[in-house]
Write a structure and sequence with these properties.
It is built from three helices and no strands. By secondary structure, it is an all-alpha fold. Helix 1 runs antiparallel to helix 2.
Length: about 150
């Protein structure tokens, strides 16, 4: 079981990853080309699980956008209100899907080369977009003319 496997310490070389670690000079016989090696399977699977988690989030955003358009009653006095909420969610889901693939590929390439993984902009994009959409939803809910009840 994966949880019973010993975890490597930070910066420790892992069997199966023969590339240079970040911050170490290349081997003397290096011809200037970046060498790639197969990373430890645990890291590859962790990268894939992260990719799949981002895809689940992207799919949930698309489904939420479609549900808003199809199931949410119209805002009284704001006939385009559902679309103002739904279309950005659907587009954000598509952007997140593409972005998560690019992040997965970048991280996989870095692991093969023994380079640092870097940081992801996806959490920041998602947090900002959802905050803006929440504010728009609150505005539409509070300030749309009432239905008279």
């Amino acid at each position: 079981m994966a949880s019973q496997l010993p975890r490597p310490a930070a910066g420790q070389r892992v069997d199966g990853n023969t590339g240079n670690r970040a911050g170490q000079p290349p081997a003397p016989a290096d011809t200037g080309r970046t060498t790639e090696s197969e990373p430890d399977a645990r890291f590859t699977y962790a990268n894939e699980r992260t990719f799949l988690a981002w895809h689940r989030t992207a799919l949930a955003l698309v489904v939420a956008g479609l549900a808003i358009v199809q199931l949410l009653p119209p805002f009284p006095g704001v006939p385009f209100g559902r679309h103002v909420l739904a279309l950005p969610l659907i587009v954000l889901g598509g952007v997140l899907s593409v972005g998560s693939y690019l992040e997965w590929a970048r991280h996989q390439r870095a692991m093969r080369r023994g380079e640092p993984l870097g940081t992801s902009v996806l959490p920041r994009i998602l947090a900002i977009a959802i905050t803006i959409l929440a504010l728009v939803a609150a505005f539409l809910s509070l300030f749309a003319p009432g239905s008279g009840s």
